[in-house]
Amino acid sequence: MHRIIDQLLFWIDSIPGEFRHMSELEISQRPAPQKWSKKEILGHLCDSAINNLDRFINIQYEKQPFLLTPYDQVYWVKIQGYQELPFDEVMNLWVSLNKKIINVIKNIPNEKLALQCGFENNQLITLQWLIQDYLEHMEHHLKQIFKMNEQFLKFSQ
Ligand code: NI
Hints:
By secondary structure, this protein is mainly α. It has a single domain, classed as Up-down Bundle (Four Helix Bundle (Hemerythrin (Met), subunit A)), CATH 1.20.120.450. It has 7 helices and 3 strands; from the N terminus they run αααβααββαα. Strands 1-2-3 form a 3-stranded mixed sheet. Strand 2 and strand 3 form a beta hairpin. It binds nickel (II) ion (NI). It comes from Lysinibacillus sphaericus. InterPro entries: DinB-like, DinB/YfiT-like. Pfam families: DinB_2 (PF12867).
């Protein structure tokens, strides 16, 4: 869990600075009409944080195995209206939500990391797995935004 927390701290520390090298156009331009802009991808990461924060909290006291509810990522990005928001607002939201997540996962007692959850009709996974997956999903999209290579991702570990 320490490695995951360090990694999240590294990203919320370095990503805002990385965006400073980009123009407003680069941040808000959609590569195709149906594709997300970089700002919307970051918005999608906020939605992932909102939904996962909820899961990381609820799984700790609800009855086991905890049932995960999926969310429609396309509707979420659209209805949240990230594309119309000032970029700083989306960036600050992403940083704040991840600080909350770090705080919650830091306080999860070790034995609770083995708690089980799953989507309907799917195999069960542990809370630990869910948290690891949250980080991997974030890194997948950061890579997409910055076209970062594996080398860059490794550099932070
Ligand atoms: Ni995604």
